[in-house]
Amino acid sequence: MAAGPLRLGVNIDHVATIRNARGGEHPDPVKAALLAVKAGANGITAHLREDRRHIRDEDIAMLMAALDVPLNLEMAATQEMLGIALKHKPHAACIVPEKREERTTEGGLDAAGQIAVLRPIVAALTDAGIRVSLFIEADAAQIEAAIQLGAPVVEFHTGAYAHLTGEARAVELRRIADAAALAAKNGIEPHAGHGLTFDNVAPIAAIPQIAELNIGHFLIGEAIFGGLEASIREMRRQMDLAR
Ligand SMILES: CC(=O)[C@@H](O)[C@H](O)COP(=O)(O)O
Ligand SMILES: NCC(=O)COP(=O)(O)O
């Protein structure tokens, strides 16, 4: 058993993916976000991609107006996204790497390799009262970069863990656990997310230092079969059992 409550941030990006497939208003990501909160989400995550393939600018405005739980805005480290974050002032901004041609976020941000680019962005977000998170690989050099940048939070990319099996997954899990311990030792709050499902969430949820999981694609997909509230409640249950 581990210490401390584990928060669940529900990522509603792929409600917008379905909406955008027909170009109308349905299904509404804000309605999904409110339902997610009712089902036990402690916060909502939304990734405003530069290509606007799912979440759009107006969704961020509407989420800010509708939510009374924290909004975690995932954003690329660009001036455009910085301006949007400063305009809306979400609770948190998670800086993620982004490639136009990728199907989904393929790995963590190379914070160590772009300290000079990130420093003014992290500073501007922090000065605006936005809690900065860096979406990184579970790697000591990336945690060191987060320390240098003064980021209070890191989110470990669990995509590789989610796709591996057997001993390779166990190795990746240990890497994430070690990184969470290192981050926490240095005063940084570790989060985790990407590709988490009912089948793979428990070992990540059991890492004692991890304070928050951000989960989206699986929950929205699972909602097709049992409804969004049920999928979130079951994820919450799995997380609590592991803790
Ligand atoms: C950074 C991240 O992991 C999330 O944004 C999630 O992957 C949903 O967005 P995409 O499916 O567009 O990558
Ligand atoms: N930062 C990870 C996230 O928000 C959700 O990722 P996924 O569950 O949609 O893969």
From TrEMBL:
UniProt protein name: Pyridoxine 5'-phosphate synthase
Residues reported to bind 3-amino-2-oxopropyl phosphate: N11, R22, G195, G216, H217
Oligomer status and interactors: Homooctamer; tetramer of dimers.
Designated gene of the protein: pdxJ
Gene Ontology terms, MF aspect: pyridoxine 5'-phosphate synthase activity
Record carries keyword tRNA-binding: no
Main subcellular location of this protein, as a coarse class: cytoplasm
A GO biological-process term: pyridoxine biosynthetic process
Residues of the active site: H47 (proton acceptor), E74 (proton acceptor), H194 (proton donor)
Source organism (scientific name): Sphingobium yanoikuyae ATCC 51230
